[in-house]
Amino acid sequence: MKDVAVIIVNWNGGTVVRRAVDTILEHSTSLDIEIIVVDNASSDGSDVALEEANLPGVRVVRTFTNGGYGKGNNLGAALADARYLAFVNPDVEFTQDVLKPLVDFLEGELDAGIACPRLVFRDGRLQRPVGRKAPNLLTDLTLHFQVSYRVSNRPWLSGFMVDEQNGRDIVEVDVIHGAFFVIPAALFEKAGRFDGEQFMYFDEILLCARVRSLGKKVFYFGQAEALHLGGELTRPVAGRSTSFLCQSGYVYYRQQKGRWRAELYALETAGAALAMLGARKVLGHSKERQDRERRILKWFFHRSIDIPR
Questions:
Q1: Could you tell me the residue ranges of all domains in the chain?
Q2: Could you tell me the CA-to-CA distances from 250 to 112, 142, 254 in Å, in that order?
Q3: How far apart are CA 224 and CA 98, in angstroms?
Q4: What one-character-per-residue DSSP string does 86-141 give?
Q5: Which of 23, 141, 283, 294 is spaced 20 to 30 Å from 107 by Cα?
Q6: 55-93 pLDDT tens trace
């Protein structure tokens, strides 16, 4: 059995996913690891390139259909044989031995269930929200009106629990960033894995909620760091990602709070979009800048998403 299985879900990752794999191998020599790349029907040849590279401890598994973040990671976890699982986005790069301190922390902190490292942009700035409170009506509103970062110094309003002041600390949070985190394999199974109903977004939020319901804690571990390009591979579906976010939020509230709360989330989301759309029209914004709100309203009335193939 390996120490850690690193699971990467790839969809048209190009050279970015290869860079992720290379840096993980380079900076994880202190542990016995395997890397499982689950390819969600890529059409750019990135899966073939990785397979032909024949890198040690790396295997590529194809799904032949794009099932999204949760289903892809669940498949990788099912194939893994390790004590810990590290879920890593393909646009993450290791710049140091980050897995060892995360595993050591989880082994030494008996009530810890999930640990996420400090994630930074290329210029070293902390990415937020890397650790936050569980979503609620108030924090949702700041997100819908795109003012979360402007009120980031008020956690009760923005939901942000980590900033540059405590970004090097160990902080207990409700939710971590889904781009990179580590969890014991046994706990992942006990928590019911990723839900799989969402295509992308909110998967890690639901998982964190289930882990906390089992009496385990979720931690931001600021003493280990990795680079996250952030949005590098989602640009081709940037427009559609709005509907993914709305649908995933709806599923989260339906499962955690009930159907009435999910419908309230949908109404709040649509109402905020309508207000934002009206403001953009008054301000003379182009149709391109109105696209996000139009897509939210389309989702509200149809409750469907356009999955990229």
A1: 2-233, 236-302
A2: 28, 17, 6
A3: 5
A4: EEE-TTEEESS--HHHHHHHHHH-TTEEEEEEEEE-TTSPBPSSSEEPPP-HHHHH
A5: 23
A6: 999 999 999 888 788 899 999 999 999 999 999 999 999
